[in-house]
């Protein structure tokens, strides 16, 4: 029985996926040569590929620039008060809304910058907040 179980586990976890994995590895190494990845420890490589998953949201607030707003404007103060009261999952959803990902790139939160801009429309009550994910701009109506 032990031999059967060992052979079955080997088949399921190794043999049955050998060809698809080899194809994946060949394509991956074509675009990302192995010698460049060897300089990373596994934990560092995971951060490079997946980004950071732990955040200090106050650092994010410090890195924001404002366009047509000032840091002490009422809208901005209310925004940050509400933001910091959100549960962690909602903050990550906001990050995904802003940047297209719920993770911070490998270069770290200290270097992640975004802008909060006033869309300057006639009737801001008719607008919803929107974002430019490529430019990391949050358009926040007054």
From TrEMBL:
It catalyses: S-ubiquitinyl-[E2 ubiquitin-conjugating enzyme]-L-cysteine + [acceptor protein]-L-lysine = [E2 ubiquitin-conjugating enzyme]-L-cysteine + N(6)-ubiquitinyl-[acceptor protein]-L-lysine. It comes from the Eukaryota. SUPFAM superfamilies: Hect, E3 ligase catalytic domain. InterPro entries: E3A/B/C-like (IPR044611), HECT_dom (IPR000569), Hect_E3_ubiquitin_ligase (IPR035983). Keywords: Ligase, Transferase, Ubl conjugation pathway. It is an enzyme of class 2 (transferase). Pfam families: HECT. Residues 1-142 form the HECT domain. Its EC number is 2.3.2.26. Coiled coil: none annotated. This is HECT-type E3 ubiquitin transferase.
């Amino acid at each position: 029985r032990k031999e059967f179980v060992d052979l079955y586990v080997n088949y399921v976890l190794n043999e049955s996926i050998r060809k698809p994995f080899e194809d994946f590895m060949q394509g991956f190494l074509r675009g990302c040569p192995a010698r460049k990845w060897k300089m990373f420890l596994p934990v560092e490589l995971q951060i490079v590929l997946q980004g950071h998953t732990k955040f200090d949201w106050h650092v994010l607030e410090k890195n924001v620039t404002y366009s047509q707003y000032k840091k002490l404007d009422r809208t901005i103060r209310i925004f940050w008060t509400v933001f910091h009261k959100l549960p962690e999952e909602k903050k990550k959803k906001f990050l995904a809304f802003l940047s297209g990902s719920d993770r911070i790139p490998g270069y770290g939160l200290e270097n992640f910058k975004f802008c909060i801009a006033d869309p300057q429309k006639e009737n801001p009550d008719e607008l919803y907040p929107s974002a430019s994910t490529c430019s990391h701009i949050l358009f926040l109506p007054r």
